[in-house]
Design goal:
This protein is mainly alpha-helical. The relative contact order is 0.13. Helix 8 runs antiparallel to helix 9. The radius of gyration is 26 Å and the shape is flat.
Length: 307
Amino acid sequence: MATIARERVAMAQQESWELPPQRPWLARALRPWLENPAGFIGLFVVIAFVVLGIIGPLIAPYDPRAIDIGAQYASPSWEHPFGGTKLGQDIFSRILDGARLSLTFGIAVMIFGFIPGTVLGIASGYFGRWVDYAIQRSGEAWAAIPQLPVLFIVIAAIGPGLKAVVIVIGIGALFGGSRLLRVVALVEKHKEYVFAARSVGATEWDILRRYIVPNVMPFVLVGLSSVFAVAIIAEATLSFLGLGAETGTPGWGGDLASNQRDAIQRPMLVLWPGLAISIVVLGFNLLGDTLRDILDPRLRGSTGPKK
């Protein structure tokens, strides 16, 4: 027996035990996106939208407000890739400048609406009782009020422009986000790890900060992409109706409104701003679906290729 034991020890010493080589961090980061082509397209569209929203006006070949009679109703060419409007304004430059307006509006709704709504929703679901009652009854009261008359009242109070639209859409995003995160926080607080944390003496603040918030972050990211898409559509719709940005301001919804009379004879005038809205909203929706698929293990593989 001793001889057999010594032989096994000698054989074990001769064998090399090495961990398999770890993939580079870039390959690990790209793998979920490469497995979900639709999500990768959505990510690319969103990144391109954000970049153009930041530097678009800087790389625009022309002043988007400049009037050039020589370029009136110009056809697409090297000088004017998307053509010209009835005032001779370069459509390509206006599309690039309009990306900044949509990005700014989406960020404002996120900061003043969705993020505070996320905080209220988590607090409502986790603490319950009077906190939950006050937040949810306020949301129900807001949802019962028609939003268009509220927008008119706000415009009458502070004047026309995007400020009034941000206030109304932001409040809607606040209560919408609170309802979503309330349900998630309510489910998480009844899970076993929360009871285990309480049993070892963790305070409610520690549980909320170290366990509840990290576990609801995937839902926050998915909700954020949806809010951005809704904000872009809302800004374009209200600008089309004349309730958003001031007339003449480069914006996708405003350009649709100003060019609608010439749309039958010259469809290119409304094609480009309409495509810009559609592609960006589709990109945010694809990104949200893929984030849900990647970050929620229960849904992993629901939008990706079948294994």
